[in-house]
Amino acid sequence: MFPTQIIVGNELERKEHKWLKLLTCGLEKQEIRELLTNIGTLSKTHEKEYADAVLEAVTRANWQTIEELRGEEGMCQALLELMEPEINKIVDSAVKSTRDFMVSEMEAAVKSTRDSMASEMEAAVKSTRDSMASEMEEKNKESILRAIKSYEEFKFDPVMMQKLLMKTYELSSGEADYYLSLSKKT
Length: 186
Hints:
The chain is mostly helical. The chain folds into two domains: 9-86, no CATH class; 134-186. It has seven helices and no strands. Helix 2 crosses helix 5 (75-153) and helix 5 packs across helix 7 (173-185). The protein starts with 17 loop residues before the first helix and ends with a helix.
């Protein structure tokens, strides 16, 4: 067995045990007003922490009376002042969560935009490179065909033209033959 104490709140002296006497349901409005006033006068941190615990228990046990007091002038402000540290913690937590969420969303948006832009730039570069290569190939083809026409005007034989094309345009013999046959069609 362990020692047990039973506290009968109604039998306690109000002035000697004011904090214990408050730990009950059915408190009057005036008793709660006095509690709020007393808590407001506390200056030490540990005293405020103990008072907050008592206030929480009183609030839970006397919710209807607290609701009635909330509407009274000045009472709402007193409750807010008492709850300010808790309210600030909740607000700070909400602000941090919101900021973390927004930073995360912004980082994701920036990454997505960066990836999209990189992909678009790669496609544009490839398209430009392909287009330029195609244009260069066409210009090169035109140049080779003009050279063949010049060779023909000077009456070069086909073997000599093939050698000149291979040397001048760095073509294989097959490529030179292709251009020579192409020039005969035009």
